[in-house]
Amino acid sequence: MCQLNRAASPPPPPPPPPSIAAAAPRRSKPASPAPMKRPARPLFSILLLALLAVALTCRTALLRRGGGVSGGGGVGGGGVVGGPFELEGAAQSVMRGAPLPDLNSSMLRYAEIDASEEWLKKETEQLLEGDLASSGRFRTYGTWRRFNHHDPKARNSRGMPATLRSPMFYRYWLDFRRNLRDWARSKRFQPDVMDDLVRLVKHPLDRHAGLPASDRRYASCAVVGNSGILLQSGHGELIDSHEAVIRLNNARIENFGRDVGSKTTISFVNSNILHFCARREGCFCHPYGPSVPMAMYICQPAHFLDYIMCNASHKAPLIVTDPRFDVLCARIVKSYSLRRFVAETGRPLEAWDAAHDAANFHYSSGMQAVMLAAGICDRVSLFGFGKSAAAKHHYYTNQKSELGLHHYEAEYDLYRDLAQQPRAIPFVSAKFRFPPVAIYR
Ligand SMILES: *[C@@H]1O[C@H](CO)[C@@H](O)[C@H](O)[C@H]1NC(C)=O
Ligand SMILES: *[C@@H]1O[C@H](CO)[C@@H](O)[C@H](O)[C@H]1NC(C)=O
């Protein structure tokens, strides 16, 4: 979803609600049949099984996907699907007969190439060169003009809309430049960044909660993906029982409580979501309440405008992920994508660029949220990651297909390694201690 609006020079289309914007399909398929209903199970048995499974074997839960497998089976149909004995079979069905090749040095080197680097650099330079009044920077100007209409503070302070030349906007402009420059400068590969996530993300959240910033990780975290497999899962209570719950891209939770829970500790979004929020009065972006902190990664440098503006009106922390973390995530996902590409097509690595639209290729919000959880939690549970033929793409929309610029299958391979053999994950510093990860279906 990071490519949205990037090439736009005409005025942007009217803002769709964020959930739809985030889900804008590239290719659409005919309407899907209603998701297959699974028999309701008593909640206590789900909890019991889940607790047992987590306690006995924190690392062995496994995602089952593909091949139209939906529910049923598993460990008595309980919360965690895939005990240690099921891994082999499930892994086979995932691979569709083609074994994933080991990561070799050519793949690793290829995964280091960031095909979006060039346009990012160019766009950053243009934004930094541009000045506030320059009408040549249409998109920049348009964004600022929007802020004129949407920042209640700007209006209230003068009783009328602030102008682009007001001291207030000049200050925002300077902040924007400073933040963008710092971000661009520190955008580099650093395998150690995983060890820095507690300081970068959890400390601000601790302070917001009125606690002394501590290096303690969250005892347990639930990362709630938005897959339709959550429907009828009954996981809500289990999700809320984690110390921290991370939700993605402002997915709706009202009326879904039984399956997705209601607690939110971190709202994780990509900057396209915030970009749409920035058009609203007071930059309203809080489906989980205005006191829930947000973390987001930057899709486009211009989104720092939205960040600066929204940061000023948000009461809870609005944290931009460290660009070194972005680089790490990009390399990891590309390496998994390359492996799957080679296994499924047998084509040379170089053919990946065209097949996956290299300049627009991006990890999903879910992937980065999972890696964030791995960095700030002692135990991680994943919910709502994965697909089945019967499930909707998102539990809260009727969208059936997915965005082409993410390689979900490759990301599922990553999650499986996180749960089973995290040391196999490339690019992460060898001294980083991965927490146990369980994948729920
Ligand atoms: C690594 O694997 C790719 C894909 O299978 C292959 O094309 C390449 O030659 C291999 N490189 C090395 C150094 O083995
Ligand atoms: C964002 O807001 C917080 C809290 O008001 C503030 O401490 C921080 O400096 C702001 N960040 C930027 C880049 O303005």
UniProtKB/TrEMBL annotation:
The keyword Membrane applies. Residues 1-37 are annotated as: Disordered. This is Sialyltransferase-like protein. One of its GO terms (cellular component) is Golgi membrane. Belongs to the glycosyltransferase 29 family. The lineage of its organism: Eukaryota, Viridiplantae, Streptophyta, Embryophyta, Tracheophyta. Residues 20-37 have a biased composition (Low complexity). It comes from Eucalyptus grandis (Flooded gum). GO terms for molecular function: galactosyltransferase activity; sialyltransferase activity. The chain crosses the membrane at residues 43-62. Residues 9-19 have a biased composition (Pro residues). It comes from the Eukaryota. It is a single-pass type II membrane protein. PANTHER family: BETA-1,6-GALACTOSYLTRANSFERASE GALT29A. The keyword Transferase applies. Keywords: Glycoprotein, Glycosyltransferase, Golgi apparatus, Membrane, Signal-anchor, Transferase, Transmembrane, Transmembrane helix. InterPro entries: Glyco_trans_29, GT29-like_sf. It is found in: Golgi apparatus membrane. Signal peptide: none annotated.
